[in-house]
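Posting this for the archive.
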Amino acid sequence: MVNKVKTFFAEVKDIFKLLVSSSKINTLLLILANILSGLMLPLEMMVWKYFIDSVVGAIATKDILSPVYLLCLHYVVGGINNYIIHIEEYFEQMEVDYVNKYVTARTISKTAKLELKYFDQKENYDMIQKVNMESTQRLINILSMTMLFVRNCVTLAGIISVLFILNGWIILFCIIVSVPSAIVSFKMSRKQYEIFNSRLEDMRKIAEIKNILVNYENIKELKIYRLGKFLKEHADKLYEKFICQNKEVRRKYAVNISLSETLQVAILYLIKLYVVMQVIYKSMSIGDLTLFISAIDNFQSCISSIFRSIIKLYENGLYIKDLNYFLNLPIQDVNTGLAFNKEFERIEFKHVYFRYGDSEDYVLEDICFCIENRKSYAFVGINGAGKTTLLKLLLRLYQPTKGSITIDGIDICNYSIIDYWKNVGAVFQEFIQYPFDVKHNIGFGCVESISRIDIIKEAAKKSGAIEFILKLKQGFDTNLKKGWVNSTQLSLGQWQKIAISRAFMKDFPILILDEPTASVDAKTEYELYNRLKTLISDSTCILISHRFSTVKLVDTIFVIENHHLIEEGSHQELLEQNGVYATLYNMQAEAYGDDI
């Protein structure tokens, strides 16, 4: 129990650091406003007590001056309290904005810096889902509960001083009667968190279904295959399961909390009866009676609110614990290491093995080959052979499980990752269609030059994208993807030209092309074919393609089969070997009805 309490306060401390980090000045002003607000209630109670006594006295003396003064004072105190509340609301709303900005920035930054292997495990997607779905709102809830806790503690200190005048034991009884309800609420919070964790994968499924339904590229297939009803029913089943779980838990909670609160109210009325008896026997004033009864009600309200605040802090802390864990995940040091030598002589794979997890089979086994500077290479093989995994290793998105990759004899891991990536251009088969305008979609190929419209236009010319870009209403300022103001949707082939333009944003020493012509028509492929010759001649180029018309461009072709490198040579050499490459080439040539 002691360890749990220590853990709880340690987590609260971490959360508070997170809140302060979002905006130190605003957080401190918010705390100060809540402290001042907490002082107002005891002050109002005392003024009201003297006002009641002054009214009773005025009934006998007919002097109304004192009640008028005290009533005005009560109005002033209430007015000040009202201003403080609005000030506190202002700072809290600003804190929400600061927290949203801070947490979003931290989570995006952390996600961008995590190693690719982190995304290979299902549990980590659940973690990201929790962080994205819950963390910001839970932090805001914690902020509200913390401020409520501060305000109630200050108020409670003033009320305790009032109740001590009558009997200190009343304070203890008021605390004790609130405990059962607090325990019931605590158990409910824990149960809800357990249910939330059990639903994460189902909630991700529902979110994915929603994303599929609003993605413009998906709409035609969804309509043709009439999948709307099926997806709706699938989501309904998941929600129905959630509702059944919620009914059972909430029904039990409603019964238990009702019983505990009924007992609590009964004991409070017994305490109030005791107060009435004390006022009568001790010949106290009516003002004293109203003061003590009001103090008991407010004390009980504060205690219950403090317990609720602690429970909510605990409940929300369970979710924020995931955020803290996520933000503290280890990341690669991308800045330290050797500077990349653009004039390198050779990159060598030495007996490289790779698998995506310790329990997984090897995707690559005993891979050995050399890549020489300013020469071009292609990897071919059937799907699943391991071609794309080789590129991921070359891009340093993963490290070999066994073996090594060296550049001029130096392990690739010894180079600064960020410096290495600055010298590598890539066009991926599954390229991203960014929800930005044309110039940004091209400029993302080299973020350092993203404001250089001259470089962006030149890149578009080299890829051939300039032809359709100039026909768009806003040209390079046209927003892309449906759903945005003044946006347009490009064809897949046009998007591929945009993606290839990114590779022209800089003269990259190393260029990696993963199916660069997979989504284009014959005419566009021919145009890109000629432009790729320029790319290949100016860089060390590594290509993956199922189209042998493109593969024929390179100096050396590597054939991957069953996770092994089985053939190596030029197009003509491999045809003469009459092995796997020749078989694949002839199959494609036969399909096209001519030599390719």
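The mean pLDDT is 83. The first strand starts at residue 346 and ends at 354.
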